[in-house]
Amino acid sequence: MDPGYSAQDVARCDLCKTTIAQSYCDFCHVNLCKPCIGEHISDDYSKKHIIVPFQQRKSTLIYPKCATHRNEDCKYQCKDCNIFVCYECVVSNQHQGHQYSKLEEMFTALKTQIEKDEDELEKLILPKYEEIAVDLERQIASLDGEYGKLTTEMSKLGEEMHREVDNAINQMEMEIGEIKVKHHSILQKHLDEIKEIQALIQQSQTDLNELKESNKVCLTIQYTSKNAEYSHFPQKMKVTMPEFQPKQIKREELCRLFGELIPLSTSLEERVFTAKKPNTSVRELLDEPDVLNTIKTGDSYLRSVACLNDEHIWTSGTTADIKCFNIQGALQKTNKAKYGGWPRDIAVDYDGTVLYSDETQKTVYKVKNDQTEEIITLHGWKPVEICVTSSGDLLVTMYSDDKTQSKLVRYSGSTVKQTIQFDNEAQPLYSRNRLLKHISENRNLDICVADYGAGAVVVVNQAGKLRFRYSGHPSTTKTKPFQPYGITTDSQSRILTTDSDNHCIHILDTDGQFLRYIDNCDLSYPYGMCVDNNDSLFVCEYNEGNVKKIKYMK
To answer: For residue 232, what are the CA distances in angstroms to 197, 237, 238, 432?
Structure first.
């Protein structure tokens, strides 16, 4: 099928617009049905119409006309003159002894290079630019938060400094109070001494007054003057008031007390471009897939299966049990979902940690060493299906509490890295309901969602841009509408999705083109599935409670 058309489209005649095109005019580049070929040619006999089967369209090379020999096509390039030439030019004296290149060979080589370049642009270079743009948008969106953290940190330091300043002022005020008490005590002691002398002087005054009035010779002759003693005044008590000498702090010094703000810096680093390596180990599909083993889980309604390698698988259904089986089907251990609810979906991380989503608790949990821990708790949204990517990120499909929106979110730990919800025309990518949306990441980093409510497999690239939708393959034996349940991808980037109501599995290539069904393995309502590191397929049979291991590659 032409890669320019999706798995569902067919080319129509460009003239009548209704009939399927069986032919193509390689000169006019027009799709034609058989009845319209004659009409197209008769419209303009002057043109050199080239009618070919539609599958061989654009296979006829249209060469440039020779500037010297008007009726001849240039099929060579003169290497010496660097111009296109016809056969007549080649044998002419003008180009005698010159070297030539065939335009057909040059055209074929360049077409191959163009296809490689287009493929590289689409699958590697453009997604890298989109990834860079998403990362820059994320950095811009986080600026307010990051600078808010800086401001908050500085404000906390300011509050601490304020507290320290207040403490210092309080300490100094206490010291001033203590000095004041000491100052008062010194002055009071000196005052008390002075008042003592004052009392003695006043007593002397009284005694002198009595002597002055007395006529007793004896008392008067015994009088001794004390004025000389009292005239010897006590030393003057000089107490100097304490002074506050503020330290002059310059603004620069004050800033240094707070700390140093390292200025904004920018640098450029070379981005390493790694060309895509060709897949040298192509594994073809088997004509008749084979059931290698059937594992009986004991669950009445089996929904999900996940594996890390070819040694163990994990399963879950509509009970709280998350079971681990070895590859022979022996039960190894059973973990219970927290709060007794049944897991909506399960996945296994690269270190063997089991993850599961709980729709009722709006939470994604991880179970490691028999300990259950919350890693993501949503508000206003409920998680549905989950998938661990090759980079270790977690993809989660979810729907809003009012069941009017659906989206896909990429997490690194508990941090949101990417949200995928709308296409380039702002239309929802996924159906707006809580119905199944199993998810898988392809080897080319495409994100593949089996949207049961939309009846389609929706595939976006790493940046979240829509690549294609697959809505089933016409079949006379598959009579029920296509409504995909589980989805997985393999080492060849093929996409596998379960068509439960038709009891089969669809296999698509990386561009969404239908390859074949797996419908000969007596599957009964296939549901969730996964592929191990050897490309063995494990499929849940919903009603039977079995997991079938299927070999479908050579």
So the answer is: 11, 15, 18, 110
